[in-house]
Amino acid sequence: MRRSTAAAVGTLTGAALIIGVRLSVTPPEAPAVAAPVGNLAGATPAPKPSSKKPAASGSKEKPAEKEQEKSKSGLKDGVFKGNAAANPYGKIQVTIKVEGGEITDAAASYPTANDSATINPPAIAALKESTLQAQNADVSAVSGATYTSESYVKSLQAALDAAKA
Amino acid sequence: MGTTVSIELGEDRPEAELGRLITEVCDWLHEVDARFSTYKADSEVSRFGRGELRIEDASADLRHVLEACADLWRDTDGYFDAYAGGALDPSGYVKGWSVEVAAARLLAAGSHDHYINAGGDIRMRGNHPDGGPWRVGIRHPWEADKVSWVLALHDGAVATSGTYERGDHVVNPRTGRPAQGLRSVTVVGPDLSIADAYATAALAMGEAGIAWLAKRAADGYDSAVVTDDGRAFSSANLPAAV
Question: What is the ipTM of this complex?
């Protein structure tokens, strides 16, 4: 039940390692924020808003600027922003860059703040299915649904504690 | 709380000091038990549940627990419900929270390498006495002497809820009927009280809990699930040992 173990690991070493570990525990959050920046420009979220405000709409939308030079494709040079398309998680806005009448760059902005940042990019997140293992592994502790002292007595954790005491 | 707590301190300190740290943890857990046990008619939570204690007169700990339960009820779409059985029973939060507090006190007292396992819910920090991470097995839902995953963690919490111990004890608060579909749910994350509540909520959701858990990964809570029909699922960043 209660036990203490004296070990050869010094406190200083322990503290230094903890810092290293915090990094290894945090990663789950990192991809959610980091991945989108490069990925989303041409990935899934982009097509929807761009179909509402297609690239070609750049010239049709602003007929006022007629004096601007037009190429054979009908696209004016410059950087154009489509209207922001709203969805339940926030707004997505597509920007295109036209040079010599051709679209040379396209990017989509999408929400990165609050809930939206976590809901939007990893929307495809799902748990992976794998084969259920049954192993006899060397472990320090066992996590399980152990609700009573009685069930503890029969548990793997109890056997571990007995072995270490 | 009617459960057994295993504590391991992995520090090179005098035996008497380590013993005192462990005694302090046990004293705190007994204090929590006296205040929050629903099996004790004179506990603070029982008196509050019977309406004999006003919220204004409740201890800071009880007020914290009630607020946390309300937050978790919202965060889990109502599937974590301290009133699922009718009467107030915040045990599903109290166990994880009390261990989280105990581990924080160990850290404050200078213990950097430890784990506390309260009835299968574990909070750990630092290193195993032999160096390297703590290795935590997740109990196999059918074979009590086997593990279905092995995790390697330095700092974090692992909580498991399952139907294999108490049968149909976990109730889906939406239907009032026993939860079905999932046999074992393990959640790994920074805070044991949250991990424990998420595991309980997902178990109550049944198979829909798998998709719900997938979304929690973005907040740093990874998971491993076994369904009633023996399928295993885990999140991409589950800290599984190789």
Answer: 0.91
**B242 contacts chain A (CB < 8 A):** no
Question: Exposure pattern of A142-158 as b/e (b: 16+ CB <10 Å)?
Answer: bbbbbbeeebbeebbbb
* pLDDT digit string (tens) for chain A, length 165 residues: 344 443 333 333 333 333 333 333 333 333 333 333 333 333 333 333 433 444 444 444 444 444 445 555 677 888 877 777 665 556 666 777 777 777 777 666 655 555 555 444 444 568 999 999 999 988 999 999 876 666 677 778 888 888 776
Asked if CATH classification 3.90.1010.20 holds for the domain at A34-44+70-165, the reply, yes or no, is yes
Angle at B172 between CA B166 and CA B175, to 5 degrees: 135
Query: Best of B24, B113, B192 to disrupt the A interface by mutation (most A CBs within 10 Å)?
Result: B113
Contact B184 A145 (CB under 8 A): yes
Local structure of residue B72 (DSSP, 8 states): H
CA A19 → CA A22, B135, B136, B137, B152, distances in Å?
5, 18, 20, 24, 16
Instruction: Report which secondary-structure segment, H or E, holds B182.
Output: strand B182-189
